[in-house]
Amino acid sequence: MAVFTPLSDAQVATFLEKFDVGALRRLQGVAGGTENSTFFVTTEQRELVLTLFEQGEHEELPFFVELLDYFDEHRLPVAGPVHDRDGIALHSLAGKPALLFPRLPGQHPSAPNLAQCEALGEALGQMHLVAQRFPGHRPNPRDLHWLQAMHHKVLAYLAPDDQALMKYEVEEYESAFADAELPQGALHGDLFRDNTLYDGDRLGGIIDFYNGCTGDLLFDLAIVINDWASQEDGALDPARYAAILGSYLAKRPLTPIERERWPMMLRLTALRYWLSRLLVVYVDPPAHDLTPHDPERFKTILKARIALGALPLPEARP
Prior knowledge:
CATH superfamily of the largest domain: Aminoglycoside phosphotransferase (APH), C-terminal lobe
Keywords: Amino-acid biosynthesis, ATP-binding, Kinase, Nucleotide-binding, Threonine biosynthesis, Transferase
GO molecular function, one term: homoserine kinase activity
CATH class of the largest domain: Alpha Beta
Protein name: Homoserine kinase
Number of helices: 9
Strand content: 5-15%
Oligomer: single chain
Radius of gyration: 20 Å
InterPro entries: Aminoglycoside_PTrfase, Homoserine_kinase_II, Kinase-like_dom_sf, Pseudomonas-type_ThrB
Distance between the termini: 46 Å
CATH topology of the largest domain: Aminoglycoside 3'-phosphotransferase, Chain: A, domain 2
Domain Aminoglycoside phosphotransferase: 27-245
């Protein structure tokens, strides 16, 4: 159960009095998640999600509120935070920062079909279009600079071949992206399938923007492809790949430099998750008693991207 700070009905009922959402009817802790405490809240008027922020840089939370408000205003499938009667979204509850959200419909797709992949690609393409005009700024905390600084911390725990692979890849990225001016904008930063909700084939919502930042739009797209379109052996699934990218490119065509650097960005984001998972296992274990994600998954994906490259990018649909 991902509830690290228990809440009573009385605490939540008092908290809700700040908002025009009705009185509390039911409070339920939500299983899943690795960092924050999450609750489903039913009032006499609507269904809501309450999040308490347990970890991370709390001073960065206003950035996330601004980003979610911005995407919500542009009618993207994102839950904008609920603001109180004074227009304030970010509050404190049980000594922790707290946000209240509308509850979006749907379930996480464990094996997304092609219609679901197309819906995601279309939504992400539209998101990246408007994201280029988002005025906020938060540097990408997991970009190439992070890889350069952090990969040394896990080398002692790796076999010699894996040490050599990681060091070689970081050097390759330094060369590939040194002078690459890629389109910039606001990113989700962690758009795995478990950060989406589907009602059948309809995308009900994109959630958990707490890795949100600003940076290379191509970085965000590569994260999606590596999770959504990778087979068990790490190779790309041609149908899912084409479904996501075809609908994405119909909204936001890639620039020539993005198309050229695409195979390398797939490799970079695969290493990003291999490294971050290794760090959790060996260097910085989670604050709570949770099972870390397996780093081997993204080592497998990285090796597949090196061996097989990327599939051809589809042409943008008219």
